Hints:
- About 65% of the residues lie in helices and about 0% in strands.
- The protein is mainly α.
- Helix 1 runs antiparallel to helix 18 (about 350-380) and helix 2 packs antiparallel against helix 22.
Amino acid sequence: MIPSFRSRAVPCPRSRGTRSPLLDLAAASAAVLLVLAAALIGRHIEKTDHTLHVGWPPLWSNWNPHVGPGTPAAVAVALAVVAYGPVLAARLPWRALLGAAWATAMAWTWSLALVDGWHRGVAVRLTTRYEYLQVIDRFHDIPATLRDFTHHILLGSPDPWPAHVAGHPPAAPLTFVLLDRIGLGGGGWAGAWCITVGSTACVAVLVTVRRLAGEELARRAAPFLALAPAAVWMGTSADAYFAAVAAWSLAVLALAVTAPTGTRTRCIAFGSGLLFGLTCYLSYGLTLIVVIGAGVLFLGRNRVRALPFLAAGAAVVPAVFTLAGFNWWEAYHLLVERYYDGAGGIRPYSYWVWANLACTVLITGLATAAGLGRVGGALGRGRHDLLPRRTPQGPAAPSPGPTAHHPNPATESRGPAAETRLALLVLCGLLALLVADLSGMSKAETERIWLPFAMWLLPACALLTRPRAWLGAQAVLALLLNHLLLTGW
């Protein structure tokens, strides 16, 4: 007998049909116009003033139509996800879906990276003069290097660090130093690490969405997370690895604030704090993940109980690096000085403050632009669902104790309320990205720098109707970008 999967099929929440598909197309069209404006105006600025320092505005890339050994695989993965992704996402058991999403994201990222060939697409990406593998030999004495780290950040300092090493706290280069120490040295292993770990970010986002907004929306988001255009830059960039660590810090936090209270939950909250601390020592800008973390806490039931253990865990990594002699704040201020001494001081803020958003369109796709339009509608319709309610008899009832019943996240949140919770999570990701944009410390190259924030915009696609059409648009965009441009990351 062939088992039926009909009972696992996920119905479309009724509220998604209240928005006309024409409005989705209008949002996607506006995103296309933004990218066109950034390209045309950017080319004019670069031609006349030479101040953008990118080859194909608004991206750090060059026009170079090409195919490669990864082309057939990339097309095959795209066709398979468009044809079968939504159905399988609805029918697979949850744990099998998570495994399938990770496998698909890896296949998609590897195939896109190999469009440029193994050497150019993977093996040498992290070995250029800007990258982390250039400094492996300088970490032969790790404690001494950490104590001396800030003395080599400025361009005028003796033996200054390469751009990416100077631009990040030492946990970033230390990752590749430790890989080298265990025998996984060289660009090939470094690239494989970033792709393999980076691909798990989609799983972390799915876990978070399921816990906070219910399984229906997580299942609908799964194909879009696995087939994201961001994969063009996740293979091969260290920022893919950073995105995964940041995403798992939020996923573990979501587990902590939605689970029954107890010793295990406190340990989970502590683990989330450890990952938050590591995230901040991988990239200075990823301190903004706290904006999304605040949204996760707001949507969780046990946020008050989890917060002390989260804070305790978050203090561990900073304490270790501080005791080792690295001063995070001093290093950050030196980085700002170096940033404005280099291209950051030349690139015009008046262009990049909006052209960065065009880069975001290219890494998240037109489906996400349409989904963000629906996010606004969901928040408008369901804003009252997010506020605590008072019963007619008096104040709200006290929080349930450790033995209280906690609903299954697969069924606890459905329909408009679930969409509102998802919309709030996506909004927090958008706010973190906008703060990074307005800071002026992200002028260009945001197609890789903002990968950790972009992952949290993609769940907006769960609100769309006609998922296959939008998945097709996502796939076509990624294939065109990877085959027409030679990206720098």
